[in-house]
Amino acid sequence: MTCLTMKQRALPLLFRLVLGALFIALLAQLSIPSPQALGGIPITGQSLAVLLVGLLLPFPWGGGAVLLYLLLGGLGLPVFAEGGSGWPSFSGGSGGFLIGFFIAALGMGLLRRRGWGQHLGYSLLANGLGTAVIVGSGLLWLAYLYGWGKALEYGFYPFWLGAIVKILLGGFIAWSMLRNRNAV
């Protein structure tokens, strides 16, 4: 591959990386209120966007898009859920989930490399595994901060049903875009 060809290929990937970060920021603002009985913490489109970007962009570009998103939020742009931003977001209750986004996106890219997005069953499984990484990372951090009881109360119980919906939705969207690999 010539140097010119590599540059031509890198520019569209860099453009998709920026679009991926913006897509995550946009879906992070989609918010479904949760009843106070379930903790009152809203369900957002943030994790769905992370999983889609991770699976739709080739490895490691999906992880790069998530890293850019995290950097923008850390620097103070209101890109996190409900317009959140700043470095304190990483040390608070959502910090583990934010770190889990990056790890999940990298893993999704590796699964894409193995063709998982091209088959509906594997696409659904990839989204399930990515969700498990995000939730697991978030729960570990919450447990460190507040103990396991509070971690489950605030980081799992209000979100498990929404997580299943996002796994199904993300798996189907990614599969529909990747089954004909030339589409993305």
TrEMBL record:
Regions that span the bilayer: 12-32, 38-57, 64-81, 93-112, 124-147, 159-178
GO-annotated cellular components: plasma membrane
Superkingdom of this protein's organism: Bacteria
Protein topology in the membrane: Multi-pass membrane protein
A GO MF term: biotin transmembrane transporter activity
Compartmental location: Cell membrane
Entry keywords, A to Z: Cell membrane, Membrane, Transmembrane, Transmembrane helix, Transport
Tagged with keyword Zinc-finger: no
Family statement: Belongs to the BioY family.
Name of this protein: Biotin transporter
Organism: Phaeodactylibacter luteus
